[in-house]
Design a protein that fits this description.
7-stranded mixed sheet; 13 helices; D-Maltodextrin-Binding Protein, domain 2; single chain; 3 domains; 21% strand; Arc Repressor Mutant, subunit A
């Protein structure tokens, strides 16, 4: 049997990133934290934490991080239910990872449906958010992975549509000619970060080959779009933002009728948690109105987006 105090300590080390920070959070000494981790590793027979900055779980430690978070959440909810109206209530805390464009757009309003919950939000590229689920760092994720992470449920949310746009001056300088495919390999590009491959994916649909143009990296959603408005280069912008800028003349659509749809999924721990269930309901409701949905069903299965 796993010792609950040792499991909670291990989870705190991963959550807070160091033995000292975990000790402060648990109101114990760093020596006590170290002893509990060593004892837990002896029980499991594996090294569970990589002593780095920050501390990260090993492959053997990942399931225990998730277990520690699940136990803490269920314990909190059971204690609140037992206390009822007479007890002093502490708010439930949920850790969630979401891609930057969703966080800047449709996702945050969903959280207002749960005023009793405290959120610990993380952000990463939509193709990498599921890694935090695997590590046990978060309880739920907006991700492009449609196959369920071990120990998780997955539900389709919809697709976020992106339009290729540029400032009028950039459009005139690089994209006004008849050979659109010739412009993308040489025209300056704006990317969110090095994980962001959306621009390359779209350009490949036009050029039918990989490209390596001059590239700016702007790792913030609002600043990313502003960099394109200011003429640093072209990029893919969420449709709702792009449409208003196109209508106002701040941006020009580079290939009318062409776009990139990114299907998004909601993955969350497979456990009976009232807070996690309520969050799932709120996120799905927000996505149903904000994201594009498949146009039809075939044999009971939702069709893919164009």
């Amino acid at each position: 049997m796993l010792d609950p105090a040792q499991l909670a300590t291990f989870q705190a080390v991963i959550e807070h990133g160091s033995f000292d920070a975990a000790a402060r959070a648990l109101h114990v000494t760093p020596s006590a934290v170290s002893q509990r981790i060593k004892a837990l590793e002896q029980v499991v027979g594996q090294v569970l934490v990589r002593r780095a900055r920050p501390c990260v779980p090993t492959a053997a430690g990942r399931p225990l991080v998730r277990l520690g978070g699940q136990v803490a959440l269920l314990e909190h909810e059971a204690l609140e239910a037992a206390r009822g109206a007479l007890g002093a209530h502490a708010r439930t805390r949920l850790a969630v990872v979401v891609n930057a464009d969703s966080l800047a757009g449709w996702f945050l309003p969903a959280l207002t449906a749960l005023p009793e919950v405290i959120f610990d939000l993380h952000t990463d590229d939509e193709g990498h958010t599921a890694e935090l689920l695997r590590a046990g760092t978060v309880m739920a994720a907006v991700t492009t992975e449609r196959a369920a992470v071990q120990g998780c449920r997955v539900q389709r949310l919809g697709a976020m549509r992106y339009l290729p746009v540029a400032a009028p001056a950039v459009h005139e300088a690089w994209f006004a000619g008849p050979e659109l495919a010739a412009a993308f390999p040489v025209a300056p590009m704006v990317r969110f970060n090095r994980k962001d491959l959306l621009q390359h994916r779209f350009a490949r649909t036009i050029t039918r080959r990989d490209i390596d143009p001059p590239t700016h990296f702007v790792p913030a959603s609002a600043s990313f779009t502003e960099a394109i408005r200011l003429g640093l280069g072209w990029g893919l912008v969420p449709e709702d933002v792009a449409r208003s800028d196109i209508a106002a003349g701040r941006l020009v659509e580079l290939a009318r009728g062409r776009h990139l749809d990114v299907p998004l999924y909601w993955q969350y721990w497979r456990m009976e948690s009232a807070a996690l269930s309520a969050l799932t309901t709120a996120v799905r409701a927000a996505a149903a109105t904000a994201l594009r949905q498949p146009p039809s069903t075939v044999d009971g299965k939702m069709s893919e987006w164009g």
